[in-house]
Amino acid sequence: IKELFDKYANHPQDNQPGKIGPNGVSRLLDDLRLDAEDRKVLILAYKMGAQIMCEFSWDEWRKGMRDLKADSVKSLRSRLDKIDAGPKDSSQFKPLYQFAFTYGKNAGQRNLELSTALVYWKILFKDQFPLLPQWEEFMQTRSGKAVTKDTWNLLFDFATSIKPDLSDYDENGAWPVTLDDFVKWARTR
Amino acid sequence: NQRKANATIDEIWQDLEAGLQHIYRKEPMIPQRYMQLYTYVYDFCTAVSTHAGQGIPQQQQKNLIRGNNNNKKSANMQNETDFVGQELYNKLTNFIKNHVESILKESKTRTGVDQLRYFTTQWDQFTFCSRVVDGIFAYLNRHWIKRELENGNNNIYVIYTLALVTWKQTLREHMATSIVGGVLDLIEQERQGIAITSSLVKGVVDCLVELGIDEVVDSNNAAESTKAVNPKLRVYKKLFEDKFILATEAFYVCEAAAFLQGNPVPEYMKKAESRLNEEKFRCETYLHRSSLQPLERKCEEVLITAQLELFQTEFCVLLENDRDEDLGRMYSLCERVEGGLDELRKAMEAHVQKQGLNALEKVKEQANTDPKTFVLTLLEVHNRYSKLVEVHFKNEAGFVQALDKAATVFINKNCITHAEGSNAVSSSKCPDMLARYCDGLLRKSAKNSEDSEMEELLNQVMIIFKYLEDKDIFQRFYTKKFAHRLVGSLSASDEAEQSMIGKLKQMCGFEYTSKMQRMFTDTGLSRETSEKFSEKCSNSGKALGCNFNVMVLGANSWPSLGSSVPLNLPYTMSTCVSEFTSYYNEMHQGRKLTWIFSHSKGEVVASCFSKRYAFVAMTPQMAILLLFNSCTEMDGKTMLEGLQIKKEHAIPQLASLVKAEILQVKEGDVANLDETTKIALNLKFTNKKMKVDLTKFVARSEVKQEQQEVHQHVEENRKMVIQAAIVRIMKTRKTMAHSLLMTECINQLNSRFKPKVQMVKKCIDILIEKEYLARVDGQKDTYEYLA
């Protein structure tokens, strides 16, 4: 594991000694033959418990690889495939989804930049949220605000529990106002 | 006695029967004969024991009573007594049966009232005579029958009961058809207005009730018998009441249909009302009281429930035509049946709402600008219907609620509150109107009301206030007006002001009026401060050169009275200001005084005109006027320099004086106010009055802006209030489901304003964002409070 870590760490173009930096990560992804916008990348980061985007520290790496029971690029890829192909029930997916918020937001900020959020939604909800295109469009019409943690988290519940035709959405439920607005917006169309 | 002791049943029966016949003929009987008959029975029953010739009769008799079965001998004896008792009992049963059958036969030959009269007479006699017979057979009752009953023999009755049971068995069929039929005919006659002999009905009813004598609670049917109140009434219910109720139904179904064809609903209601009373009276006079409930239920069902739809339609018509009495009648009818009032309440709510809106629509033009018309129109509609509800609907809770609902709608959302040409409701219009109306009442004027009258008017204001949704907006407008009244000493009376504050406090709580209260106190304190100040000045020999009063108002409790406009005051006035400032700073250290000249006024005397005039003027007006002490004409620039005031502040003041015709524009335009503008004193100024109020000439341009300001302020304030409420609730509850939190929050705030659901949700979002709240893990509908 250490070898593997060393292979990607301290990339000459990365200025982060003792860590796998952005360029190291991109090399790793190349080796894993993963596209940067693949959900498996997020799974990897989640499993590693990565604090900062495009960075893995040795501790994160060691813990993550142990959890994934992987010791080579090949076994890592197959583990990730397995997890991604596995059941999409919310008990597994939800922590990953919620992890993505913290992972994606800039340190020191409360909310997630809308642009990042849009990318993540695309990755996370691939094929699983029929209303995603509408949601993306809606979010862009709203004067480019950042996404709050509450809205982020509740969107998951929204995506997994509400019918695509919105017939079972309850405006008086505990949804954040942003989701209320979205439903109002979507229904008029 | 000894001789008779051995007599057999046949020997004594002959004479006993003769005696019984005598009794049932109801002929007078001498006591001796009665005693003789009694003795027959006694002897016959006791003969058995002597016949058996065992011991002392007295003792054995006791044994018999105890029913001692252990003793073989007494068991023997008992068999014999059993036999003897049974024999006598059978004979008597047959006798009564024959007698009753003869009555039946006779009764069948008669019809109608005659039959009823015969029946009831016979019944009376029969019961009376049977009691006598019961006395004669007392010995049998006490011993043989008693023991049989104790042994659980259900076919043996005490003699009097036996008589009644026999009557019932024999005459049941006859009573069920002819007799009850006759009674029902009579009742129908009475319903049609024909006088009847009600004692006949009463007789039959009593008979049927009494015939329930042997009915016992049927254990198999326990459930039913707990429902049917009393098993003793079973005969009455079955033979009479059931049929009576059916007949009643049929009668009133016909009558109602026929009557409604030829008469309007209000007449029908009168009819129904009197019919219901009649039936009640009927039941009380000659039916059994247990029938009252089923009878009333049935009448209500036929006369009211079946016509509910008709009533509901008519109700609207009656409302339209203000037929209060008929409405009251309909209420008391419909009140009797389940669900009878539901539709009426709805109809009234809709009607009142419509009336309210229409009334405003009619006076729209005037009410739009005149708060008095607006408020009085609302009040008129409300009082009209609140009286209706109170007097004719007995203040029934449902109607009160319906009225409240309707009033809330037409008071808050009407043609006046709807902004011109749009559907949006301007939430500030109604509170503004009401506040202005209050201002009109409380402001000093020539037509101020008497104290008691004032109190009543204020109470009326509170009626509207109660329905006001945006009480917080009213608070703002009212406070503003109140401030103007206090500052300008324009209040009609302190008591009235205080009373109004008290009323608001009572309805909305201490917090709602705390600022007003402090404003009131400030005013009072200012008076004292002014007095002390002038006292001090005169004591220390400082002449101010004029009378000077000041109001020191706490910036926290008072609404903004406009920004302080710097102004170069004439010398006399500036002395006062500076003297007071230093005096006040001496008294209270660390307080900052801001002078708002735009709200202060004074009186100046002018002796330059044809007459000597006193002018009441705002301080800036005074400053301008005083400039003309040194000249009669000046240009705009000089004026501004003299006043040290910004042009835009000077123009309205100057314009007011021009309008009042004290000053004249000789050249140029007031709006420019520079060296080209020449202003001169109008020396030809005249006025009928000696004292001229110039303050009213100052144009009030702020109103529109004021509203906007209030609005924005209120929105912001509400958000804070909602958040505070949520935090308060969550602090005590720790965790709470979304819907509960929403309800609780809206409830808490209802006395101040009606929070919009969206706004509350937004506030929850904000609080989650600020990490006061969080969603409980795994339950997105529940929040927890984060300390």
Automatic annotation (TrEMBL), chain A:
Give the stretches traversing the membrane.
none
Q: What role does it play? A: Neddylation of cullins play an essential role in the regulation of SCF-type complexes activity.
Can you give the residue ranges of the DCUN1 domain? 1-187
Which PANTHER family does this entry report, sorted A to Z?
DCN1-LIKE PROTEIN, RP42 RELATED
The alphabetized UniProt keywords are: Ubl conjugation pathway
Provide one Gene Ontology biological process annotation.
Answer: positive regulation of protein neddylation
UniProt cross-references to PROSITE patterns, sorted A to Z: DCUN1
Q: Does the keyword Kinase apply?
A: no
Gene3D superfamilies annotated for this entry?
A: Cullin, PONY binding domain, EF-hand
Entry protein name: Defective in cullin neddylation protein
A Gene Ontology molecular function term for this protein is: ubiquitin conjugating enzyme binding
The organism of origin for this protein: Pristionchus mayeri
Q: Which GO terms describe its cellular component?
A: plasma membrane; ubiquitin ligase complex
Q: Which domain of life is it from?
A: Eukaryota
| Entry keyword annotation includes Transferase | no
TrEMBL record, chain B:
Keywords associated with the record: Isopeptide bond, Ubl conjugation, Ubl conjugation pathway
Q: Which domain of life is it from?
A: Eukaryota
Q: Which biological pathway?
A: Protein modification; protein ubiquitination
All copies of the Cullin family profile domain together span 429-658
* Pfam short name (any one): Cullin
User: Which molecular-function annotation in GO is an example for this chain?
Assistant: ubiquitin protein ligase binding
PROSITE patterns (UniProt xref): CULLIN_1 (PS01256), CULLIN_2 (PS50069)
Q: Entry's InterPro entries?
A: Cullin (IPR045093), Cullin-like_AB (IPR059120), Cullin_CS (IPR016157), Cullin_homology (IPR016158), Cullin_homology_sf (IPR036317), Cullin_N (IPR001373), Cullin_neddylation_domain (IPR019559), Cullin_repeat-like_dom_sf (IPR016159)
- Gene Ontology biological-process annotations: negative regulation of apoptotic process; negative regulation of intracellular signal transduction; regulation of cell cycle process; ubiquitin-dependent protein catabolic process
Gene Ontology cellular-component terms listed: nucleus; SCF ubiquitin ligase complex
Q: Which family does it belong to?
A: Belongs to the cullin family.
Protein name (database record): Cullin family profile domain-containing protein
Q: Which organism is it from?
A: Pristionchus mayeri
